[in-house]
Structures are given as structure tokens and as C-alpha cells.
Specification:
Strand 5 and strand 6 form a beta hairpin. The chain is mostly beta strands and 141 residues long. The chain has a 6-stranded antiparallel barrel with strand order 1-2-8-5-4-10. Strands 3-7 form a two-stranded antiparallel ribbon. The radius of gyration is 14 Å and the shape is globular.
Length: 141
Amino acid sequence: MRREEDTPVEERFLLIECHADGTALTAFGKELPQPAANEAVVFLGYNYADVPVGRQYTCCFRRDEATDVERVTTTVVAVTQQYGRSWDHIPHGWKTLSVLRFAPEIPAMVRELPHGGLWYDHRGSVCISDTDTWGTYVVGE
């Protein structure tokens, strides 16, 4: 167990690997809710801390080009992992299949990500974070 406040600011982001395809949803996503128009079911990389369902973030940026940022509210709606069971949080150190809600809409950089059936099908390229975490990436450029 790792609390968010015990995590360095520059590590506090969710890494989207890709969207979940139909195969993934059938195999792992049975307990996930049907996503709304502004929601996406995505594979997330190893998580930085225990993050509860309901946690909101303020921006999305490309991992390889941090200056490409979109200010959007992103909410963790639902979480599951390889056994398909619903969780009330994203566990520290785990890769998960998660439903994320974007307001007002899903950013283009997220919509454009490929679809995959398993973790590791695609390299993550979009980070979900708060502005202070994003700022640590931009300052380094």
C-alpha cells in the first residue's frame, strides 16, 4: 500500500497504454459499467499509489511531448484487473483495466490511442495527472 501523498509529485500520473478492445472487455471487463460517450475503457500502466475510484485529475499530456497538454477533468469511474473483479481503487504497483470519464469530452490524444486485448499490447503515451505533476515534466524541457 502506498498513499498518494507519499509519492513524489513527478510520479503522480496514470499512464494510459491503450483502449480495451472487445476481447479484453469480454475476458476482463465483465464487472465494468458500460462507458458513456465521454468515458473510455483503457489499460493503465503500473500505478504510482493506491488511487480511489472517484479521484479526479486536471490534465492529460503526451508522455513524449509534455507541452502537448489538454486541460480536462478526468475521473476514475471503475477499476478491474486480470481476474475481472471490480475494485474500489487502483492498487499501487498494479496494471488495471479502468473506466475513465473525461469532462467535457474525451481529448483527441486519448481518442487516437490504439485498441488492444492485453496489457503490453501497446506502449503508453498519454498521462493523466494534476497540473503540478504535469509542470514537473514541462520544466525539464
